[in-house]
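>> Question from a student workshop board

For tomorrow's exercise we were told to take the sequence and the ligand below, predict the bound structure, and bring the output to class. My setup keeps failing. Could a helper post the expected result so I can at least see what it should look like? The ligand is D-serine.
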Amino acid sequence: MTYDTVRETDPAVADALEGERARQNDTLSMIASENHVSEAVMEAQSSELTNKYAEGYPGERYYGGCEYADEIEELAIERAEELWGADHVNVQPHSGSQANMGVYLAVLDPGDKILSLDLTHGGHLSHGHPANFAGQVYEVEQYEVDEETGYIDYEGLADHAEEFEPDIIVSGYSAYPREVDFERIQETADAVDAYHLADIAHITGLVAAGVHESPVGVADFVTGSTHKTIRAGRGGIIMCDEAYADDVDSAVFPGSQGGPLMHNVAGKAVGFGEALEPEFEAYAEQTVANAKALGDRLQEHGLDLVSDGTDNHLVLADLRPSHPDTTGKEVEEALEAAGLVLNANTVPGETRSAFNPSGIRAGTPALTTRGFDEDACREVADLIYDVVDAPDDDELIAEISARVDELTDEYTLYE
Ligand code: DSN
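>> Workshop helper replied:
Here is what the output should look like for this input. Compare the format with yours to find the bug.
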């Protein structure tokens, strides 16, 4: 794909697009929520479907000319049903947050109660943070991880649910490195007669590949995004039993969205098709193996990992025990200068701020797409540790940057 046509009419945008392509090629993305889609997904996403209004659902649209939109949405739905084994799938949410909004609108009234994980313990804004619509429209209380172990405090959650009597319990997280016991959370939801929404945005691909326990068929609702561990381009998805299908569909359209972004639905269809190929399972397994290798090596260097390791695609390091005077933001910025892009992150028991927190979160989905194996991830852990240890050492940053250049040349991405 070239930007030659954009360049003819709009050089400023072409420069920025080419800059972003070069940035992705020449740096290593370790942001746990990012990945690199195939060129086929990108082509589908930049198709003429960006021009098309298709309000409604396949076969029941409010506009003419939807025959190809119907075909594409049906393909995306069929493939998603096969990938996750869901009864009903809505592929129209513009994002994971909109997918969550769709579920809330389907079953909650304003003022109803949400019980979800605290953002600083690994939750998500759309699970009820006061700055988000969910925290403003609903009454929210939050559960936590056990600060000693870093694992979800399932007993604390059950006690909290009994006391708070929520209408919905939200599981599924943004910075939680361990397998989630969805069955156990479902038992808690059943005990207090609450719905259970499992937001698997981060682990959608791991669940599809069978390398993480699936909440589909366990939780009442499963939401996800389509661009993280599943490489289907930006967007969201909702899965549920047939019994909730009509409520969910009308909560998405017309409840909270107008016309679906059909070009993104086309990207989802292509990406889901790719994930149905046998190689995807190997990719997901390698992603997890790479995160373990990365985490083990960081621990060998003396970094403290929340929960003492990982079961999935990410590690969360708490810098305080080994480097009490170094913040996550300082490390994020120094690493970025060296071409390693990850994010500063809050940790359980955070003592600094969300903007300048005490941890760093590192994920392996994008590295694995580039072809990194465990050895390569161990080397990346060495580079990360060197920067954590000396974020102000410009000479070191330059050396690491040179090594990152060699790695990005070896593990190529987009032509
Ligand atoms: N912002 C995403 C993340 O980085 O986890 C979740 O939406």
